[in-house]
TrEMBL record:
This is Pimeloyl-ACP methyl ester carboxylesterase. InterPro entries: AB_hydrolase_1, AB_hydrolase_fold, Carboxylesterase_BioH. It comes from Nonomuraea maritima. It holds the Pfam family Abhydrolase_6. Residues 25-276 form the AB hydrolase-1 domain. It comes from the Bacteria. GO terms for molecular function: catalytic activity.
């Protein structure tokens, strides 16, 4: 696996990993992840595509988010990577899917097809971001475990029992997890503790794009809307809303899978099943 860097228009270096051969496919990760978080998916697609896995700004080997961070910076980063690699395809995961969607809208000639896996769009208040103020307070106080619990509750990704466990217990369990993770850390990937501050950036992307649904009617790029049948209702709602407004979209539901579907197998992902749908969509008509 090769690792290279491209420079975004504001001067920020964006590192990316390269796997496979064939037409270029950029796979853009979501919250609490870095480029290698979808390495199993990239390997499952490597026989048909050259997969590029960027570390989004503020993560991994890339430069900092910067004081002027926002959706525009992320769009510029992805645009720079598309130009550097000549990739005709992009796949965005979670918040990465919002960035992919906005990049296709801003640069309509840059992409032939895109795949959007469960973008956490706020549709009529379905994904509020009022939790960001609490997150900032917890991070400022050095309470990383509390910030992670806040993010998890906001994302509604935990098991049903999660909502019944008292918050102090959740924070204690998270603190123990962070200690264990530090001892077993893989230096190639950032830890959850290191990624915790990036939750504010992902939350900001959701907040910035809230209420923009009608804007996407003008997107002419062929799009696959991908999601799991066991994912939270607000993520399925976002896919349904996009299905209604995107003129060239088709949808595929992964039965029995949830928001972790694109992740590596050791993170409860099912990359082979996701790869089947992505490959079928990208090679159709080629």
């Amino acid at each position: 696996m090769n690792t290279t860097t491209v420079t975004s228009p504001d001067g920020t270096p964006i590192a990316y990993h390269e796997v496979g051969s064939g037409p270029g496919l950029v796979i853009l990760h979501g919250a609490m992840q870095a480029g290698r978080s979808q390495i199993d998916l990239a390997r499952a697609l490597a026989a048909d595509f050259t997969c590029y896995l960027p570390d989004r700004r503020g993560r991994g080997l890339s430069g900092p988010a910067g004081s002027a961070y926002g959706i525009q910076r992320e769009v510029e980063d992805l645009g720079a990577l598309l130009r550097a690699t000549g990739s005709p395809y992009a796949m965005g995961v979670s918040s990465g899917a919002i960035i992919t969607l906005r990049t296709a809208l801003a640069e309509p000639a840059a992409l032939r097809k895109i795949v959007l896996f469960e973008p956490p769009l706020d549709v009529d208040g379905s994904n509020p971001t009022g939790w960001l103020e609490r997150l900032d307070r917890e991070l400022a106080a050095g309470r990383v475990e509390a910030a992670l619990v806040t993010g998890m509750k906001a994302a509604r990704l935990g098991p049903p029992l999660f909502g019944l466990v008292p918050r102090p217990v959740l924070e204690l369990l998270t603190r123990m997890m962070l200690r264990s993770e530090r001892r077993a850390a893989d230096k190639a990937e950032p830890t959850f503790g290191e990624l915790a501050p990036t939750l504010r950036e992902d939350g900001r992307i959701v907040a910035e794009t809230s209420g923009d649904l009608e804007t996407y009617r003008q997107l002419g790029t062929e799009t696959l809307l991908l999601g799991g049948t066991r994912s939270p209702a607000y993520l399925r709602q976002a896919l349904t809303a996009l299905e209604d407004v995107l003129p060239r979209a088709r949808r595929a539901d992964l039965t029995g899978l949830d928001h972790s579907a694109t992740s590596n197998a050791d993170r409860r992902g099912h990359p082979e099943r996701v790869a089947e749908e992505v490959r079928r969509f990208l090679t159709a008509g080629s």
